[in-house]
Amino acid sequence: MNHLADRRVGFVGGGAIAEALVGGLTSAGIDRAQLTVSDVNPDRRLIMQTKLGVRAVAANAEVVESSDVVVLAVKPDVLPGVLLELSEVKDLDLARPLWITIAAGVPMSRVTDLLPEGARVVRAMTNTPALVRAAATAYYANSRARPEDVEAARELFNAVGLTWQAPHEALLDAVTGLSGSGPAFVFVFLEALGDAGVRCGLPREVAYKLAFQTVYGAAKLALETGRHPAELKDQVTSPAGTTISGLERLEAGGFRSVVYSTVVGATERARELGAGE
User: Fold this and answer.
1) Does some domain include residue 171?
2) Residues 152, 190: one domain?
3) With pLDDT > 90 as the criterion, what percentage of the chain qualifies?
4) Which of 11, 117, 155, 183 has its CA 20 to 30 A from that of 237?
């Protein structure tokens, strides 16, 4: 946390992802006194204060004024209005902080158009496993961002999982389709896997626990060994055994093709949203 150790970090919006990021930062050693959150909902402010021990306020301008890094953690449709509101606050220097936006589908140009010329901005796409410190986050910085700004963004998202710096902003749409929307696709697979266990005679609670642990363990094995998924699959697949019999059904059902088209469809929709369609 070298690039965040002395920086004050503020969150405009105190929803679940902001809560996860605040929790990740404090667990990584950032002083709670450096963190401020704003939210219009008093219940969310209370959670931030009592659960995480950070300062929570109602006014977004107060966060910007007291922060070196401002994380825009509001919903995409709310973001333009928030920035317009901030631009109307007298004597508020919007060119000073580093801005990090996690609003899905909102291109960086839409953010920079509402900030002063020269604003330093990082756009990031993270996902809901941030809530358990297992997020997959990609980020892209504009040309005004300094090297230390990029490192600060990386450290912020490293606090809740894995990070990747995209070489082009356009790739964030593919990230949205794969890992942004991906948890929902995995949850459907988990539900189907568990239900199949019930169909084959397992108690429902046991079937779901086994399904969850199986997917978690398989992903952990792939991440930690670095081996290709096909190699790991072959390790489980014995000649004329149970696994190859099940894999036959997946192939016959077009499993790979459905996964491809699912991610491509989500990516295309992300591009449409970014274009304002």
Assistant:
1) no
2) no
3) 95
4) 183
Which of 166, 194, 220 lies at the terminal end of a domain, its last residue?
166
For residues 83 and 72, give the distance between their C-alpha atoms in angstroms, rounded to a whole number: 9
Classify residue 123: in a domain, yes or no. yes
Spatial distance between the Cα atoms of 10 and 233, rounded to a whole number of angstroms:
44
Q: Spell out where 102-160 has E strands.
A: 120-125, 135-141
| Mean pLDDT of all residues in 114-128 | 96
Whole-number Å distance between alpha carbons of 271 and 277: 9
Distance CA 12, CA 38 (A): 5
Answer yes or no: is 175 within a domain. Answer: no
CA distance 52 to 46: 10
pLDDT beyond 80 at 237: yes
Q: Is residue 17 located within the same domain as residue 92?
A: yes
- Which tokens hold the place of 128? 């809901």
| Token pair in block for residue 111 | 């953010």
pTM to 2 decimal places: 0.93
Q: Which of 166, 192, 214 is the last residue of a domain?
A: 166
Using N-to-C axis directions, what is the helix angle for 255-274 and 242-252, rounded to 10°?
A: 50
Q: What three-state secondary structure class fits 69?
A: strand
- Domains identified in the chain, total number: 2
Residue type, 214: T
User: Closest by alpha carbon to 24, among 39, 41, 11?
Assistant: 11
What helix, strand, coil percent values describe the chain, rounded to 5?
55, 15, 30
Q: Which two tokens stand for residue 170?
A: 């356009």
Residue 248 lies in domain: 182-274
- C-alpha span between 165 and 137 (Å, rounded): 9
